[in-house]
Amino acid sequence: MSDIKLVVLDVAGTTAKDDGLVVKAFTIAIEPLNPSEDRLAEMIDYVNATMGQRKIDVFTHLCEGDMAQANAAHDRFVEAYSNLVAEGLLEEFDGVSDFFAELRNRGIGVGITTGFPRSILDFIIEDLNWSKLIDVSVAASEVAEGRPAPDMIERAVELYNQGFGKSVSASQVAIAGDTESDMQAGARASVAIVAGVTSGAATRVQLENSGATTVLNFATELLGQL
């Protein structure tokens, strides 16, 4: 029996099906910059390679440090992704709500983190009816550094301890994510379980090479590890 007291999970690709929505929203956001076909393909490759990372950081790189351009593109991305969610195109993976409920039934806290800004995260939580199923949530816009830095995981632990009068340490935390940056963040946070899931952006080998201590098909399978 593990001593896990808090599970911190990624959103798109881990607990919610992305089905290409990030790339679709990105393509809409970048269109006004009129990239060539080859350049657009390069940009999409970079977006796929950096899944899980803070979106403004991705746009800053692609706009070569032009912050005005990057911020404008990011704003368009937020609007486009929010519209796709509003159209009902984002769904949770089968059994995720029940998974959240079972964790809490076992006395384990539930946190979610994302490379999206708070405006998108709140919209997702509302749209998927997760507000009463999770204990804490952290958006990349609320910490000093996005993934692969451990900031969001550490902030989730801090918020959980503050909000519920707990003293959970990293050795009592499990994280789950579908990207290499999720695994790197978990390893750097020194959590007990760094679970990679193959339901999203990365392969089993990529997840293992990035620090996963276990690799699962879906986040809901984490229950069997606890």
Strand order of the largest sheet: 5-4-1-6-7-8
Low-confidence stretches: none
Q: How many discrete domains?
A: 2
What's the CATH architecture name of the largest domain?
3-Layer(aba) Sandwich
Measured between the Cα atoms of the first and last residue, the distance is 6 Å
- Helix-strand sequence: EEHHHHEHEHEHEHEHE
> Could you give the count of β-strands?
8
Sheet/helix structural class: alpha/beta
CATH homologous superfamily grouping of the largest domain:
HAD superfamily/HAD-like
- Largest sheet composition: 6 strands, parallel
Q: Could you estimate the helical fraction of the residues in percent? A: 40-55%
Average per-residue pLDDT, rounded, comes to 93
- Taken as a percent bin, the fraction of beta residues is 5-15%
